[in-house]
């Protein structure tokens, strides 16, 4: 009589035991080993492929084998764990461990490759707990999942076909190495059971079994396996010696390999990255061995007690800013500032500070600035998202043009397309006054203003770039101080005495990078974002598709809100500081409507991305033109200072980089910058500048044009000398008393890279604060390739970067030993 049909519980037990037996089968062990082997090798090869430009050919050929040592150790351990064990307990433990590890490493490899394809960088697994980012679009998620599953499937499929070969290959290697060991050692680790390449059937039912035993009992029954060892293969002695010598050579190469951060990076193994902890560079080590007298940096700090101005110590104590702002002063904290227990940046204490406020205003603009021709009632700052300098305005000799030519079979751009490219950014061309190299059209008349052609951003992360542009103290905090201490009133007919209205405006979501947390910290009390627009009647928002809705309202809808804002300012007699961040030029470069095909066959991959970027630039230029038109219609264009600057660049056309994250390519740093005013002559600054000079320049312009009343002049006059950056309306100082003007850029995310350059030399050093880089080797390489002068500069740059990192830690109250602390 046969057993009754099993219930759900019995079925689950059957499945569980089936999976358990499967894990213990020889074919499963070989398959799991193959998954681990292939995943580890693919992950390392992909890293080398993705960052091959960081390696020299000789470095890769000579030291490349040492990059795989960690993977090799994992493979050896996996091979050991997938062998047959006499102990059933150890067999079960080994099966579970290897199966889970295979699942983890194959999933991580697939996710890492997919993330790199879509974002341009690898996943930083050790920072996942601290990583915060808003939800990506549904399309991006589906695309990333599709690639990840594809890679995952390829790993599983290739492992299925290669399992026996890989296991036999690794077993043969272990056999050869073991042949040089004493017999007692090899016997201890050898198995008395058959190797993994022998396969057996698994009974799934008992339909052919005359006994009345349940199939589960049959699965539980141990398999009968021979008790003798299979005969070992006899490998020739020469082969064993060569294989063993290669392994020994790789180990020796690893021991003598230079201590280089690049080699360390390529040696990191994917499964261990979750457990890596950052080794923050505290300035110890290699710079101490470098030549030169840098005692002027030793034991120095730029931190000091913040000056206690009378206007800052008003009895109402109403200025409320953030902890890191010097404006966090009220009657309860004056004593702390007085005794020096609260410190802030003081340029007089900064050994790297080279102020130029003592220099004259540039002759070409001094006249209209001092004679009252230039009036600044409103200040408008537009942050141009992901806009690199060589495409704003779009020029005939930029790298994007090279990509367009390369996309065409004959390498020639048709005349109609050339004309369209020549008219891609007419407003940017007008605002900068630069020659673009296109001869197919008439040039627009220059708008007037100062264009900086050699500007670097202070941070390749948008929010860090923003703080570097308007802070130290932040401009909204200053304007709030003027409103309360500058004797400002809307009852006056003199607009220089009108109160200020700082406002932040963007049409996309404030959840991007948690921007909503930063805005109030910067001092913006009036903020417009997609969320605030959606909470209103959305009277200016056109009907949008689901994709348009996800990416945020297009930038152009803000022109209606700007008109309302200007009308309110006129009615209420207020002055505007309007800060705006564009977003259509952000990855994935979404623009509404049809896109022009500038690149031939731009349907997917890198070509599609570059083509979308070009379309986004054209859209952004149209939007800038709309902004200028809004202010012209309001009759205040001649009294408005427009500042436009890229938050960071993008290396997409050069190397396919989709973001400025961890991308040290110069195009990630080089951004457009101009101060536009119709009453200024059009001039170009070619000297190196950085975006931390923007706010000092704004303050200097307000003072020199007398665009504020007397009380406000006094306040701005007190604050202007406290900034790091030089004023760009004055002659620059590139080198003073043998000390250079240094410019630092932090790369995003924070704590990973910094870039340093000096204003007097066309060199640039990119450093990794988390690693103690072998500066000696770097200087030797520079000396050999470029000569003594660049090598001397690199030596100085290493020292000043070393000091700057330590002092920046102190300034932001950052503990490198405990990076998670506030």
UniProtKB/TrEMBL annotation:
Tagged with keyword Calcium: no
A Pfam cross-reference name: Sulfatase
Occurrences of domain Sulfatase N-terminal (ranges): 500-702
UniProt keyword annotation of Ribonucleoprotein present: no
Chain segments annotated as transmembrane: 31-52, 58-81, 93-117, 137-162, 237-256
Alphabetic keyword roster: Membrane, Transmembrane, Transmembrane helix
Protein name per its UniProtKB record: Sulfatase N-terminal domain-containing protein
Source organism per UniProt: Penicillium chermesinum
